[in-house]
Design a protein that fits this description.
By secondary structure, the protein is mainly alpha-helical. Helices cover about 70% and strands about 0% of the residues. The chain has helices spanning about 1-15, 20-30, 35-45, 50-60, 70-75, 80-90, 95-105, 110-120, 125-135, 145-150, 160-175, 175-185. Helix 7 (about 95-105) crosses helix 9.
């Protein structure tokens, strides 16, 4: 089908285009709907631009809680608006709060890190689990420092330990020795209960 062919082309483009092709990629992006734009989101995380941020924001149509792929791409591109949104969003307490904490973990911005550190100091178990899950897919260079701080929290529930183990295991699998030693210091849990 045409749709399938278009998608395959987008995957090929995102794997081969380089930074010199930013203007071209920008034009491609502007012709896409939400679903197709997410195929290119990884490319734009590697080559962020104000135009891309603007376009992903308009695709998300301010519905950051529902349009999570676009929201996380914006966070990873260093968009300040999505971090400000997350900060207000998690104050309201709802079933999609996890989205806000993933934004903190994925954003390279210092203010997102400051918000994450507040969560770690606050010690709320659910918020910590969501932060850890967000760090699992984060490119923040200091994510291990934050995971270390969470590991150091005295009273940790099974669910938090389970997700810490998962995130650290992923990092250890990719050759991170520090993650491996942190992992070895955690008790083994086989379920969230």
């Amino acid at each position: 089908s045409n749709e399938h062919e278009r998608r395959m082309l987008l995957f090929a483009l995102s794997g081969t285009a380089n930074a010199q092709q930013l203007a071209f990629m920008q034009r491609v992006l502007e012709s896409l709907n939400n679903e197709d734009a997410t195929i290119l989101s990884e490319w734009f995380v590697n080559h962020p631009s104000q135009e891309a941020i603007k376009h992903f924001t308009s695709l998300a149509a301010k519905d950051f809680a529902e349009e999570t792929d676009l929201t996380f791409a914006l966070a990873a591109m260093g968009d300040t608006n999505v971090v400000n949104w997350a900060k207000e969003f998690v104050k309201k307490k709802g079933e999609r709060d996890w989205v806000g904490y993933y934004v903190y973990a994925r954003s390279p911005l210092p203010e997102a890190d400051a918000l994450a550190q507040k969560v770690i100091q606050g010690g709320d178990s659910d918020a910590l689990v969501w932060l850890v899950q967000g760090y699992d897919d984060s490119r923040r260079t200091d994510r291990l420092d934050r995971l270390k701080e969470i590991v150091a929290i005295k009273a940790k529930g099974r669910k938090l330990i389970l997700w810490l183990r998962r995130a650290l295991d992923d990092m250890a699998y990719h050759g991170d020795k520090q993650a491996e030693s942190l992992l070895n210091g955690l008790p083994v849990v086989d379920s969230e209960q």
